[in-house]
Amino acid sequence: MTASTSDSDHLDLDTLTGTRKGPYRSFNAVSAVQIWQWCSAMGDHNPLYLDKAYQEQHGIDRAIAPPAMMQAWTMRDVNMRYAPGSSSAAPYEVFDVLAANGFPGNVAVSYDIHFHHLLQEGDRAHHYNTITSISPLKKTALGEGYFVVEHAEFMDQHDTVYAEAYITYFQYRPAADSNAAAAEPSPAHKVTTASEQPTFSDRRAADLTVGDALPELVIPITHKLIVAGAIAGQDFIDVHHNAPAAQAAAMPDIFMNILTTCGLCGRYLTDWAGPGSRIKRLQLKLLAPNTPGDTMLLQGQLKTLDVGDDSPTASVEFAGRNGRGYHVTGSAVVALAG
User: Fold this and answer.
1) Residue 5 pLDDT > 50, yes or no?
2) What gap in Å lies between CA 222 and CA 236, rounded to an integer?
């Protein structure tokens, strides 16, 4: 990735940073139906979220939303409209300005999320966003463009922050000879082994050793998974369901959105740590796209274990590899059940 110059250098992008915009509200309260749709798309069977017997045993009286759903509640509808009561300020004016100046493509690049508490059925979400920085013009395999960092604050009906994230996007002019469009998955990397089924028993710090490998998770990448994940996260951007639109953005086919990747990584972590665990921080970097016909293999390792006065926490590093290389690399801090 290198710096570049073009006629767009006259753009005064600094004027588009530093303004906190919002609130952007949810169309609906947190519901068991939407949680079910998300869990179904992600293949996430953690009993914490919807299992009545498990919930009654642990004094939970409402459905629990997976933490990776944090952004889904306040997304725009299929017509790209925000919910009633939302701010009329365009939260992503920078993308509109760049698109109008010849940079129409957009992909998410990374997430850095802190989870403070879980939403429950009946809660009502809203969020604020601030564009914190815009890079100089850069040249990448996808094309040349700008890296844009957003700080998003997600709040419940009591104005309590339940999650906050720094999200990096790349807004770009697709390269005519994009490597992303030309590359094909390597048949030699196809994963055919089945994943170990989670037991959904809580991991205890006393039973863990730094360096332990997490069980592998094999995820076939299908059109159904990509579309179902995008819809479950209320992400109706056409590159995740419309092949010509994705190809115009220098991708070979529709591709997985970052909300689905986040959901699958969240599932991977709690499949291992158990339903009594809580993900406190999740950092993701997106690399090669997940496109239909490929397979992603998630692998991870326990890097540190902190047994303090409060609940013990585990630091995990993980990566998901497909036929093009790494789709996602990341790390997480997980509070263990005991």
Assistant:
1) no
2) 17
Cα separation, 308 vs 338, whole angstroms: 11
Instruction: Read off the pLDDT of residues 15-55 as tens digits, 9 standing for 90 and up.
Output: 999 999 999 999 999 999 999 999 999 999 999 999 999 99
Q: What is the pLDDT of residues 132-165, one digit of tens each?
A: 999 999 999 889 999 999 999 999 999 999 999 9
Which domains, and CATH codes, for the chain?
2-335 (3.10.129.10)
Q: What is the mean pLDDT of residues 84-111?
A: 95
State the helix-helix crossing angle for 223-232 and 258-273, rounded to 10 degrees. 90
What is the rounded end-to-end Cα distance, in angstroms, of the chain? 44
Closest CA to 318 of 306, 304, 332, 305: 332
pTM: 0.91
Q: Sign of the CA dihedral 319, 324, 325, 327? A: negative
Sign of the dihedral through C-alpha 260, 23, 92, 81:
positive
